[in-house]
Amino acid sequence: MATMTAPAPEGVAPPGRPAPSFPGTLPARAGLVLSTAAGGVVVSASYASSGVLLAVLAVCSAVSVAVALLLRARYSALRAVLTGVPLPLAGVVAAAAWVPGEGDGVLLGAGEALLHSGARILTSTAPTPLTVDTLALPLLATWVTGTATALAWRAERRGLALLPGLVLLVGAVVLNGPVAPPGFAAIGLIGVAAVLVMTTRSATATGGDTGSPALGIQVDQRPAGPSPVRDAAVTGLLCLLTATLAVFAGPVLLSGWTAEPGDPRAVLAPPMDPQQARNPLSYLPGWAAEPDQPLLTVESDQPVELRWVALADFTGTTWLPESGYRNADRVLPAPVPPPPGADGDVTARVSVGDDLPGSWAPVVGAPRRVDLDSLGYDALTGTVVTRDGAVAGRDYEVVGTVADWSGVDLSGSAPPVGDVYELYRELPPGAPPILDEVVAEIAAEGDYHHRARAIADYLRDSHTFDPESAGGHGYAHVDAVLAAPGGRGGSGTSEQFASAFALLARAAGLPSRVAVGFAPGTDLGGDVYEVRTGDAYAWGEVYFDGVGWVPYHVTPGGRDDAGADESPESGPEADGPEAGELDASPATEDGESERTRPDESRAVPLVLTGAAGLLALVLAVPVVRFGRRAARLDSGPPAPRVLGAWRELRDTLRLAGAVPEAGATVTETVAAARALVPDAPPDRLDRLAGAVNSVGFGGGVDVDDRVAGEAGRAVRDHQRAVRGSRPRARRLTWWFDPRPLVWRDAPGRDRQRRGRR
Q1: Count of C-beta atoms within a 10 Å radius of residue 522
Q2: Which helix (H) or strand (E) holds 537?
Q3: Burial class of residue 334, CB neighbours in 10 A (0-12, 13-18, 19+)
């Protein structure tokens, strides 16, 4: 039985028809939140306080979706967006009070974060410290994503509703670069969100508001729809399957993929503080002349050497840090490659005296954690600085990974390949001829390691240590110290010899730099060591592929030489504490290097290739179908667009199982389409039928762009309603069905159809 009623007031459900309930759309709204939160799952993995950031972005995802849906129910899309803007801005202000950044005060700090958040993230060391400067960008991006997702859902553009979350996920992956693990969990969230959003019935299919026609027809008895229990079971199974495939099958399929993502942090160099740019080598001559002045004390259960700063940029007169220092949290990233022979981390308590200059913080080996606030860090050199003033007078704990060179064989190691290492081979103009003379005599031949070792032996054997030597380590000072091979060279401190080694290594084509640090110091008892000015020394480093920066302690004799108790360059014949050849090799048991061994298994690449091809074929179906629909409905003159809408309507009927008969008239076909969605307004399909008959019999004289556009919208709305009335599994696979791409009318059938009204 049917009853004709007057239209209900706006916002009020017609009598006898229940208003769309919130629980009915709850799965889809949960999918919108999951889609928005997926990017936060990825980006939080690169932060030091990952759990805190993930919680903040998850709350932001839920609030942004809920607020956008509520505002859109009352206002236009633009007004809804503008009305919601104060909320994320208030969140940034609250973050400035909670985790202050570099700006002064709450409001100025929030303003600085809004303007420079992206740059602050790219100039930070991963794991990124959580401050308002690094929180503002992901917070605002999550809010914008949630708002766009909700607005697309309200407009019944389900596929478009998933796009903002996918874009945010891709952006988070690009921003992380190689510093975070793969985001399979986030991909699983996107997949689950797609299942929830795409399988929820539309308002038309669930009896929601379909417009405000002049008169409404209420059907007292509706046909029974699909079982809610079955729908829920199918949806849950699809969600579980999607999440399982993404989280567990994804790593297996990609296990053989060795591609390394690019690091966006490499494109933006942090600013260099003038104090941090000073050269600590200049302090060594004065300290060598007065070696007994205390600088700091170290509390550790074993003697440890401290690393102070590394210098790679040579100007011809001095060595400088190669870049600025990035903002860092107390937890620092693991060194790449890991220090060889390291057996766990070493912990030390460092108390810095008032006479240690600069903001460089002495650390143990490759630092992993430094308990200081406002840190700066250069991952390329392992140098740590304090960004809020000098390091003098501070007391902190440092944890680092210390290499053990006693079991590493560098013979046969290959030089690194890549433009990034060219900086460490550069010699500015004006190099003295003695560099080429020495290299041609002692380091022109032999493998990579033996050339570096020959240079180190030459400096130790032909020169002497003199703590009273004048300072200086530029071209002129090195030229004055060096002697031709076979002769007796001059004297100097570790400042000159470390610089000379690095310059000779570069002349021999070896990437090298200078490092400065401290020997373990004097044992005061009770695991406490006092480090004095005479314990400071410099050494050279050469980069070996797969091993990293290898230290070469080259100062002949002298107190600074006593601290170099581990170095790879000395053979068994060497005297003193530097002795010890690196015996173990990174080769495999059968003598073949791990780096050069070919992959013995081709199964993973073949499976990966096959899976990628299958996935491409599956994804190509909806892409082609959407593209064909757009070409049919939106491209060309009005008459072909009307016929394209008609073909789309017939394809929809066939997908729904209501295949029109070969000789069905336009009126009969429209009646069959209307029967699939009885709640839809009938006039739009009737106008489509009139336009089709006009094109077929009247030459389309009354069909213009407006009529063609209305025909396209009518078909799109009908497709959405029909698809929404299908079972959940069918709704999910609707656009992946390839059959419409091959459906064709039989010869002459089009003429038969147009011959009947």
Answers
A1: 15
A2: strand 536-544
A3: exposed
